[in-house]
What does this fold into?
Amino acid sequence: MAHNEHNKRKGNSGFALIIFGAMMFFLAPYVQEDNPDLATIALITGFIIGGIGFYIKFIRHRKKRATNIS
It folds into this structure.
């Protein structure tokens, strides 16, 4: 059983989403200065993408571990 846990693939997709969301959150409003509507949409989208990445990276795995312990 310990060997199976060792061989599990640890995905970095959550971390990549956090980084991508943060880049959108910070950079998109500066890139879209001439169009404030797109800048607002990019700001909100970056926040949402980062939140999804945070959920995948930290929250989802915590819930799985809590159910395995019980």
User: Anything to note?
Assistant: The helical segments are 2-7, 13-31, 36-69. Residues 31 and 60 are 33 Å apart (CA to CA).
